[in-house]
Amino acid sequence: MTVEQQTERWVLVPAAGIGARMGREIPKQYLPLAGHPLLSHTLENILSWPGIAGIAVCVADADCWFEALPEANDPRIHRVAGGAERADSVLAGLRYLEKHAALGAEVLVHDAARPCIAVADVERLMDGEAPHGAILALPVSDTVKQVRSAGETEIERTLDRSRIWLAQTPQRAPVALLRHALEQALADGVAVTDEASALEAAGFSPRLVPGSRTNIKVTVPEDLPLAEFILATRRQS
Ligand SMILES: Nc1ccn([C@@H]2O[C@H](COP(=O)(O)OP(=O)(O)OP(=O)(O)O)[C@@H](O)[C@H]2O)c(=O)n1
Ligand SMILES: C[C@](O)(CO)[C@H](O)COP(=O)(O)O
């Protein structure tokens, strides 16, 4: 008889951003969404995911809102100091996990700003092995244009959209592998806007798992009513 070893699984939530594109006084993760702070929705959602050992939430040093969230008292939730950029916050969280999670543990990195993630999508992402990482993503459905440089509006060419996917979170990887890859990528000056970018820079090819359009990243003011609509529709179904 073989005894299956269950890999310990943690969630890391980067929540130390300032939400500049939202243009409000307080960071977007604390703005009210359907009567509760946005981050409360995200954490409530994560707390319902199956088989999660703990959740490291990376918040800014000067954050004075986190402790007021009801979820902050949940014993599975651990507050970690974030960093200047998203990648710095994730790296701080990974270093925390290397001290507190079991050896060989896996992490699901999920943006605080994505409160509408569906549990069924997370379960699909967690299905099977992912030794080199796996991410939720969406194949693009629009025609994709490229310009010569950022800010320009003159089209240079149309890209082959059959090969283009939009990255979402959660993004899954072994903690140690991702920590090494992210540290190296930052040291090499690689632009790391998600976890997969760091793994790619290290020569790995993380797997794409089709996600859902409803897993929006709340970024600009128009996203708030959209997120409220998605959450309300889900409660009714
Ligand atoms: N130094 C940072 C910057 C971002 N994030 C987090 O990374 C996620 C995705 O980033 P984004 O949506 O870009 O959030 P902000 O950086 O806050 O937004 P903006 O770029 O508009 O300032 C968010 O949950 C955000 O809180 C973080 O933990 N640490
Ligand atoms: C990680 C991410 O949500 C995947 O789409 C995204 O890259 C975060 O980017 P941002 O520049 O921090 O908005």
UniProtKB/TrEMBL annotation:
Its EC number is 2.7.7.60. Pathway: Isoprenoid biosynthesis; isopentenyl diphosphate biosynthesis via DXP pathway; isopentenyl diphosphate from 1-deoxy-D-xylulose 5-phosphate: step 2/6. The record marks 161, 217 as: Positions MEP for the nucleophilic attack. Keywords: Isoprene biosynthesis, Nucleotidyltransferase, Transferase. It catalyses: 2-C-methyl-D-erythritol 4-phosphate + CTP + H(+) = 4-CDP-2-C-methyl-D-erythritol + diphosphate. The record marks 21, 28 as: Transition state stabilizer. Pfam families: IspD (PF01128). One of its GO terms (molecular function) is nucleotidyltransferase activity. InterPro entries: IspD, IspD/TarI, IspD/TarI_cytidylyltransf_bact, ISPD_synthase_CS, Nucleotide-diphossugar_trans. Belongs to the IspD/TarI cytidylyltransferase family. IspD subfamily. Catalyzes the formation of 4-diphosphocytidyl-2-C-methyl-D-erythritol from CTP and 2-C-methyl-D-erythritol 4-phosphate (MEP). This is 2-C-methyl-D-erythritol 4-phosphate cytidylyltransferase. It comes from Biformimicrobium ophioploci. The lineage of its organism: Bacteria, Pseudomonadati, Pseudomonadota, Gammaproteobacteria, Cellvibrionales. The gene is ispD.
